[in-house]
TrEMBL record:
This is Limonene-1,2-epoxide hydrolase domain-containing protein. InterPro entries: LEH, NTF2-like_dom_sf. SUPFAM superfamilies: NTF2-like (SSF54427). Pfam families: LEH. Gene3D superfamilies: 3.10.450.50. Residues 2-127 form the Limonene-1,2-epoxide hydrolase domain.
Amino acid sequence: MSNQAVVQAFLKGMEQPISRIPEHLRKSMTDDAVWGNSGFPPCVGIDDIMSKHEMSAKVFGDYILTADILHIAESPDGVVFTERIDVGRTQAGEEILTVPVVGVFEVRDGKIARWTDYFDPRGLLEGLSVLPDVEAFFTGKAPSTS
């Protein structure tokens, strides 16, 4: 399977309720994977990545994220670039989040080893504003109690 096909399958596998995503992540990503979102500290390791997805369910509910790939390309060294529109919807189909994204993926042994998304975070931050400590969502530190 080409790296491009691995990324396409990975993104397609994300199209399920967020409560089921941790299993997909563990199957599809290396144990030492790094997931970054522009402007925020990266998640390092599969457990950290899974915890961020689990936290997003607390914010947005058991939503489903669809990645509409507009363009995809693989560099000569195997890095995969995507331009996509990520849309989060409730299970009833109500749109709760739409984010244009450029993603960069590195694949190792058929699994995602690095996933970095570049996007304008305004829409995401609006949804995350319900959290008492938005930084904790991205850093994994315990929320402040002040």
